[in-house]
Amino acid sequence: MVTWQRPSGLAAATASALRERVGMSARGGVAAPERSADGEGYQRDENKRLVSVLERCPLLAGLERREVEDIAALCRFQPFPAQADIFVEGQACDGLWVLASGRVRLYHSAADGRQHVVSFRGESSALELGPALDGRTYTATATALEDCVLVYVPKAVLSHLARNYPLTVRNTIEQLCLELRQRDIATAVATLKDARGRIGCTLLQLARQYGHRTPGGVRIGFRLTRQDIADRSGVTIETAIRVLSDLQRQGVLRTQAQVIEILDVRRLQHPTNCGECQFDCSVFGQAAFGGTANLL
DNA sequence: TCATTAACCGTCG
DNA sequence: CGACGGTTAATGA
Question: Which domains, from first to last, does chain A contain?
Fold first, then answer.
């Protein structure tokens, strides 16, 4: 539990252990398919499940089912238990991880133990597209918030995609632009807004990505600790609690068992200054991360 | 372990 | 000065 909070020390050990696993899954997926009778049945089933995940991934949007099936044959599932690192900041990147199920926390670690969460990711999300494409090191750490299953797309398969399916190049560019916009907005929010505003943005963004309507408002569909909210907003846990308690007292939101429900979106937008905000938050509403668009 | 509250303190407009 | 937010400590679930 404490391990993933440590920045550098045991990150190296985790990283090399991970490279092992990644290597195995890559080679296994590409070169050594199962041969036994039972294995073939299992293989067909796994391929089906891979296809259903991959065809939802924005990178492969618009491809023929046949094409996705061919690509799926080159990929492989890899489960990660809750709290496990999928990859670590600074580690070499040799492929792309696509989230099939579960939630992942993408973040930077500071030497003093504090963390800056770049984003929380859900199904169909491609993790760290940049490093996957340029083959350089990861710029953030990805940790499973809960038990997760990911699809690993080896680097060789990625270049195969670019060569054989021009559509995926277009998709890739669009995805990168989207990420760029989000990072840009995030840095602006972090430097220009106060604690209330940053926490407000965090909540609104999460509601866009993962919110679903309830009789009373919008519920963010998974558990988040106060620390998670704090790390995403760039404040201490006490400040996050202070602000959230205040919002609860005002009846703007409700939280039960680490699940937040926004009861009054308007009043959350107000202190966040969404009205005059220059930043085009509509990017958060796009289906790119598998979220429900235009909820707010 | 997580959430909450309160007292205290430094910074800054 | 006063609002804001980080630090610390105590407490409860």
Answer: 12-178 (2.60.120.10), 193-294 (1.10.10.10)
